[in-house]
Amino acid sequence: MSNNTYGYGQMPRRATRPVKVGSLTIGGNAPISVQSMLNANPHDEQAVRNQLRALAAAGCEIARLTVPDQQAVDVLAAVLKDAPIPLVADIHFDYRLAIAAMEAGVHKVRINPGNIGSIERIAEVAAAARERQVPIRIGVNAGSLERSLLEKYQGPTAAALAESALSQAAVLEELGHNAIVLSAKASDVPTTIETYRILAQKCNYPLHIGVTEAGTLLTGSIRTAVGLGILLWQGIGDTLRVSLTGDPVPEIKAGFDILRALDLRKKGPVVIACPTCGRTRIDLPKLAAEIEKIAADIDEPLKIAVMGCAVNGPGEAREADLGIAGGNEEGLIFRQGRILKKVPAADLLSVFKQELTDLVAEIRKEK
User: Fold this and answer.
1) Residues of CATH 3.20.20.20 domain(s) within the chain?
2) What superfamily in CATH does domain 270-366 come from?
3) Global pTM value
4) CATH code for the part of the protein at 19-261
5) Cα 333 to Cα 350: distance, rounded to the nearest angstrom
6) In angstroms, rounded to a whole number, what is the distance separating the alpha carbons of residues 225 and 218?
7) 181 CB contacts (<8 Å, ≥6 apart)?
8) 258 φ, ψ (degrees, to nearest 5)
9) Which 3 state secondary structure label does DSSP give 340?
10) Residue 9 confidence (pLDDT)
11) Section 81-105 average pLDDT
12) Are 108 and 137 in contact (CB under 8 A)?
């Protein structure tokens, strides 16, 4: 890791206790996992199955499903029979649904201490979780803090969010359940960062990090990348979600892109593309989009470059495993700065695709 004497450079990963969620581990030495939440109708079994499969195909490693009533529990039970990834039951208000979800075989439950109810109800949830060895995520949100903490801190401050999460974790520990993951999210980035910093200092529970209600695809991804990027660079975070409005599948790409940008996960290619300038003579945005689609089906951690001109493309992107540099009605294919071929513009994508296929085959053969 980099030296931090002067306050910069990546910090060592924060040491946390490992928590098993189905076949996946959160915390400890496990890779930082990317998760999402289904927004399909929880009463529609086929819709839930379809969306879960789409998320898994995109690389999602844990998925959360809201469970508002017994009908949703029944759907959950059916889906769990062949779920491709671990499932988390998201529970609000009715503690009995948390118990029913565990009886159905769910891999983890998420409860919100601001609305789950009395200590007696929490005790019943903890007993069921302990009996079935189901971890509990304590999920605190700025919009649903306990009234006592809102009064104490005069609002949903970082200190209030952290205290809510830590106090509920202490309750579960006293009740004999210690397979705990914490999250404490706000919709503004500074509060989110400060909250997780407090939690990181005061406990060794694995942390689920995210900015809640982040927004639509572009703005939500940017706000989340800023907040989570700072935390991850400081060694904080064991699993993450990018909370975007709409289809949850793009959340997965955004999450892995954040981790890849910090060199924290090596799953799949990174596609870099130049911003274009007056020298560009090909439709670079279209070409880059097509290459991203092709690369999405590859698991190998490659660096792919899509550059707008041959003047400095291979030079600027010489570290790329494979790249394209556009030209006037033609382009170059290169590997790590070494030019392989000069190709007519009309054939550029097809030739590149074949070169990429060959490169992946070489890598797999060497494994």
Assistant:
1) 19-261
2) Sulfite Reductase Hemoprotein, domain 1 (3.30.413.10)
3) 0.88
4) 3.20.20.20
5) 11
6) 11
7) 19, 26, 27, 108, 135, 136, 137, 138, 205, 206, 207, 208, 238, 239
8) -65, -45
9) strand
10) 54
11) 95
12) yes
